[in-house]
Design brief:
35% strand, 181 residues, globular, alpha+beta, 7 helices, Aminopeptidase, 33% helix
């Protein structure tokens, strides 16, 4: 267990997670959100897990979200586009369908922010959300992320192009220090 709250824990990926990740990555209903256009093989997923160990060299890492109540893996968090010089990182989140709308996503965001801001000591987190993804927009806005940009007609969907919204959250400790100076 990496970090935990009352209801969930975040942890490193294990080889036993390959079937769940394989299922999620190949679910075409989330491809638009994950910017995927081709399926992944189980072998590719297994290789990713084995190489998912060093944020500083790969600039990304995936963490699994476990429910402490059901003892099931309910989703994952991706940290990507890690930039240690500019002290920022991208955040992606997936909660498996049966576990959505139960507060787990917000709790996972809160936990990962603790790691990003306190342990990695980064300045900011950003996320990219399709303009039609109202659940994610509400989730990140509720978590204190501010909309900072729009990429016009950015994502191609079967119904045509949609905008991609950019959100960011600045490390609250850094904001407080700036205000004190």
């Amino acid at each position: 267990m990496f970090i935990q709250s009352e209801n969930i824990s975040l942890r490193a990926t294990e080889p036993a997670d390959a079937p769940s990740i394989y299922h999620w990555e190949n679910d075409r209903s989330v491809w638009q959100v994950s910017d995927t256009i081709m399926p992944y093989s189980l072998f590719q997923i297994e290789q990713f897990i084995l190489n998912n160990t060093d944020l500083f060299s790969s600039k990304q890492i995936r963490l699994m979200i476990d429910s402490k109540v059901s003892k099931q893996t309910i989703g994952c968090i991706d940290l990507y586009d890690f930039d240690p010089f500019h002290e920022r990182i991208g955040l992606g989140l997936l909660i498996a369908e049966p576990f959505r709308n139960k507060g787990f996503a917000g709790e996972a965001i809160s936990l990962i922010e603790q790691y990003i801001f306190a342990t990695l000591q980064l300045n900011q987190i950003y996320c990219l959300i399709g303009a039609d993804n109202t659940h994610s927009i509400k989730l990140f806005e509720k978590a204190g992320y501010e909309r900072c940009g729009v990429r016009k007609v950015w994502i191609k969907t079967p119904k045509g192009f949609i905008d991609q919204l950019e959100y960011q959250k600045i490390n609250p400790d850094r904001i407080m220090k700036l205000k004190e100076s």
